[in-house]
Design brief:
This protein has helices spanning 9-19, 49-52, 54-63, 75-87; strands spanning 26-29, 34-38, 92-94, 107-112, 139-142, 145-151, 154-159. It has 163 residues and is α+β, with helices and mostly antiparallel strands. The protein has a domain at 9-114: Winged helix-like DNA-binding domain superfamily/Winged helix DNA-binding domain (Arc Repressor Mutant, subunit A, Orthogonal Bundle). The protein has a four-stranded antiparallel sheet with strand order 1-2-4-3, with helices on one face. A three-stranded antiparallel sheet has the order 5-6-7, with no helix packed on it. Strand 1 (26-29) and strand 2 form a beta hairpin. The termini are far apart. Keywords: Activator, DNA-binding, Isopeptide bond, Nucleus, Transcription, Transcription regulation, Ubl conjugation.
């Protein structure tokens, strides 16, 4: 059971994106609810726990899985727990074709989908989007935008990140 006062991941994450406290955690397109999270590999040269694991540590602290002074710092576990929690959300999907998982500027791009952000106990965790990156997956490019077909009545639009 979730303690009173503890936000669920989606609401907590929206607050963190808005706060600007975490370098690289930002909206790519706020109106479309597309955002990015730095995802640098800890084995890479230049990785720093105080710069590259702060969002994951904050989530671990928020959930009570890490308390400074009581628990040993474990950024690998913080990141894995955050990734699993994020992947379990039915209304947040990674846009893998826009993510960069290699190099010193690795990041992942996600989209918050419209729909229920709170599930009732026992409800199915069925994803809204089943995009796999293949051409037969229900997505298509039009004018620099990706259109994901969720149902015959609903479409989600994502914008390609440009630098």
């Amino acid at each position: 059971m979730q303690p009173a006062g503890r936000l669920r991941l989606r609401m907590w994450l929206e607050e963190q994106i808005e706060s600007g406290k975490y370098p690289g955690v930002c909206w790519i397109d706020k109106s479309e609810q597309v955002f990015q999270i730095p995802w640098k590999h800890a084995a890479r040269h230049g990785w720093n726990i105080d710069r590259d694991a702060t969002l994951f540590r904050s989530w671990a602290e928020h959930t009570g899985r890490y308390r400074p002074g009581q628990h040993k710092a474990d950024p690998k576990t913080w990141k894995a727990n955050f990734r699993c929690a994020l992947n379990s959300l039915p209304d947040v999907r990674e846009l893998r074709e826009h993510s960069n998982k290699r190099g010193s500027d690795a990041y992942r791009v996600y989209k918050m989908l419209p729909g229920p952000s709170v599930r009732n106990r026992g409800e199915c965790n069925t994803p809204y989007v089943t995009h796999t990156g293949r051409s037969d997956s229900g997505s298509q490019w039009k004018n620099g935008k990706i259109f994901y077909t969720i149902s015959p009545m609903v479409k989600i639009v994502s914008y390609a990140k440009t630098y």
